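ok new one. same drill as before - structure tokens go in, u give me an amino acid for every spot. 220 of them this time. try not to just spam alanines like last time pls lmao
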């Protein structure tokens, strides 16, 4: 791994983990039926990823998708904009930060390796958390989904991965279908962060698999 000069990090479920996020959001919006709200939220997230798999993400269409996939919002006179704000505002209340991420980032910096973040969520929301925990002090670039391609799209590597230098990049992510898929179409190495030892039932093959971010130090 001596050639690695840039490590790309995912945010959610790697640098931090959301715990009971949707339950807190439902309470903020005064929606009592948490089960139905939660189910529709996951339908929205899946529809968001599916719709933008071949298109650049944009906020207007994302809000429309929320409106279409979450009728429970209309029943409670909650606009998609208010829902999204509540979702983002709940992050700091529900996040369990992974302190190991900064330990690894510091280590990589001592080796002259750049830390970059590539996330499939909106910049404003992610910056709030990254600033709060001081992560921005250890990263050199932040790539979010604002008017950009999601990681499932091969075009998402354009402008991020330098052609001919693919062997100098590595991505750390928890999602096989997003992060490891990104690695495969970008032709770079990958580390699948799998703390729960979840079986890989896909045809995607991460270069490495770890249950703790500290294991990254032994790999790079």
């Amino acid at each position: 791994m001596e050639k690695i000069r840039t490590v790309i990090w995912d945010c959610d479920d790697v640098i931090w983990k959301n715990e009971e996020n949707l339950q807190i959001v439902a309470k903020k919006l005064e929606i009592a039926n948490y089960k139905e709200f939660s189910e529709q939220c996951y339908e929205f997230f899946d529809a968001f990823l599916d719709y933008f798999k071949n298109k650049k993400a944009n906020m207007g269409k994302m809000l429309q998708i929320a409106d279409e996939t979450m009728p429970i919002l209309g029943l409670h006179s909650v606009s998609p904009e208010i829902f999204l704000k509540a979702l983002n505002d709940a992050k700091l209340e529900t996040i369990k930060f992974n302190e190991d991420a900064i330990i690894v980032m510091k280590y990589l910096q001592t080796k002259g390796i750049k830390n970059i973040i590539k996330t499939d969520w909106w910049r404003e929301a992610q910056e709030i958390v990254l600033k709060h925990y001081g992560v921005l002090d250890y990263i050199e670039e932040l790539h979010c989904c604002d008017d950009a391609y999601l990681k499932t799209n091969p075009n998402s590597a354009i402008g991020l991965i330098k052609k001919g230098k693919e062997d100098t990049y590595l991505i750390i992510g928890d999602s096989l279908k997003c992060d490891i898929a990104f690695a495969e179409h970008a032709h770079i190495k990958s580390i699948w962060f799998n703390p729960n030892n979840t079986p890989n039932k896909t045809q995607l093959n991460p270069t490495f698999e770890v249950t703790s971010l500290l294991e990254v130090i032994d790999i790079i």
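The CA atoms of residues 15 and 99 lie 8 Å apart. and btw The beta strands are 6-9, 16-18, 95-97, 114-118, 141-143, 169-173, 189-193, 208-210.
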